[in-house]
């Protein structure tokens, strides 16, 4: 099973209480299920508004169950933020 690093930014980092952590998952949906299980509560609310990058590529509107993860890859969790 692929081992990936999930990195949290801004509000997601605050809700998770960590900047990053490892997960084992085949798809983005599986990784996010693990995140929700490990961090019930505020992070769930934040995740609903986040966008995601997998190995630097935007996930966009693709179904999370269709986004496959590579061993050693990275999932970036990006909440909406103001400014520019």
Automatic annotation (TrEMBL):
Transmembrane segments: none annotated. It comes from the Bacteria. Signal peptide: none annotated. Pfam families: ThiS. InterPro entries: Beta-grasp_dom_sf (IPR012675), Mopterin_synth/thiamin_S_b (IPR016155), ThiS/MoaD-like (IPR003749). This is MoaD/ThiS family protein. It comes from Streptomyces violaceus (Streptomyces venezuelae).
């Amino acid at each position: 099973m692929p081992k990936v690093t999930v990195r949290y930014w801004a509000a997601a980092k605050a809700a998770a209480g960590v900047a990053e952590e490892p997960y084992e998952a085949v798809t983005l949906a599986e990784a996010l299920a693990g995140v929700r299980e490990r961090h019930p509560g505020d992070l769930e609310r934040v995740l609903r508004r986040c966008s995601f990058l997998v190995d630097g590529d935007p996930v966009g509107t693709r179904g999370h169950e269709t986004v496959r993860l590579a061993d050693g890859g990275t999932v970036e969790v990006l909440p909406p933020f103001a400014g520019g």
